[in-house]
């Protein structure tokens, strides 16, 4: 029987690459995000190319009601979720503390922190009932260090790091694995979102070095998710060759 994965933020970047990678390995996929058109298109492609089942669910992870409406009563055939990837997230703006926009801060915290908590809480009963499951959270190098003008984004990812460690302890009796993956700079739609559509600023982030690609992270997540049951990758920082940490790039 095919295994099942749920990926939040599957409409672009890491999430889309993760869906494509698991679908190619014949996992059935629950794909989520706000952009319904992209979800439907991805669902069709995955079904046609890989002959798997796909359940697209459009909702905003910031909205507690929407999250629970979408996830707490999954059709029975979809309830045996083996892997949950909490990937949906974003940075908004790169401004010093005194200039940063409060709305941006709230959106990052509501998405990266509260959204991850809501989705996990809604999905946990399916895993605790079976005493089986794997939760994979997308942190960042920004979960480990703070950088100039990274303020609330770094804080939100530090929270993902802390939540992942807390989950690992609390979910141990339920035999649920928790993996936190912390990528460095990866060229996805991330910087276009961060700089609110300013293509020049977004491109500058990756100038002069070869950043990670979404597929690199998807491959690592597939590896972590398919290890023998007794083996857990708990915490993994992954950067491109040009990056030592949040501050040091060899361009
Ligand atoms: P993208 O912008 O390419 O993808 C982000 C995904 O998150 C989209 O599918 C988007 O879907 C979804 N998303 C954002 N907000 C919401 C929301 N409120 N509700 C539901 N879905 C949402 O970025 P990446 O793939 O790069 O980012 C994925 C994760 O990886 C994020 O958590 C990010 O912080 C983290 N990360 C990224 C790094 C990078 O350099 N790219 C490095 C380290 C970590 P939609 O808009 O359709 O809702
Ligand atoms: C995304 C990478 O360096 O912008 O999490 O924080 S960075």
From TrEMBL:
Pfam family, one: adh_short
Cross-referenced SUPFAM superfamilies: NAD(P)-binding Rossmann-fold domains
GO molecular function: oxidoreductase activity, acting on the CH-OH group of donors, NAD or NADP as acceptor
Keywords associated with the record: Oxidoreductase
Superkingdom to which the source organism belongs: Bacteria
UniProt keyword Oxidoreductase present: yes
The family this protein is said to belong to: Belongs to the short-chain dehydrogenases/reductases (SDR) family.
Protein name listed in UniProt: NADP-dependent 3-hydroxy acid dehydrogenase YdfG
């Amino acid at each position: 029987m095919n295994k099942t994965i749920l990926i939040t933020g599957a409409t672009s970047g890491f999430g889309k690459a993760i869906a494509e990678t698991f679908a190619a390995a014949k996992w059935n996929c629950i794909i989520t995000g706000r952009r319904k058109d992209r979800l439907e298109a991805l669902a069709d492609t995955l079904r046609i190319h890989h002959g798997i089942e796909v359940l697209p669910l459009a909702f905003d992870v910031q909205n507690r009601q929407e999250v629970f409406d979408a996830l707490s009563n999954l059709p029975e055939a979809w309830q045996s979720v083996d892997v949950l990837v909490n990937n949906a997230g974003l940075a908004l703006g790169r401004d010093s503390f005194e200039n940063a926009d409060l709305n941006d801060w709230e959106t990052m915290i509501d998405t990266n922190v509260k959204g991850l908590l809501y989705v996990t809480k809604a999905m946990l009963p399916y895993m605790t009932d079976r005493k089986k499951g794997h939760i994979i959270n997308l942190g960042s190098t920004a979960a480990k260090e703070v950088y100039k003008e990274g303020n609330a984004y770094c804080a939100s990812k530090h929270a993902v790091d802390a939540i992942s460690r807390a989950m690992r302890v609390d979910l141990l009796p339920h035999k649920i694995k928790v993996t936190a993956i912390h990528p460095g700079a990866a060229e996805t739609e991330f910087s276009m979102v961060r700089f609110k559509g300013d293509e020049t600023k977004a491109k500058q982030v990756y100038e002069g070095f070869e950043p990670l690609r979404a597929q690199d992270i998807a491959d690592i997540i597939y590896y972590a998710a398919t290890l023998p049951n007794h083996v857990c990758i708990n915490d993994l920082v992954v950067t491109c060759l040009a990056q030592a940490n949040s501050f040091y790039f060899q361009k």
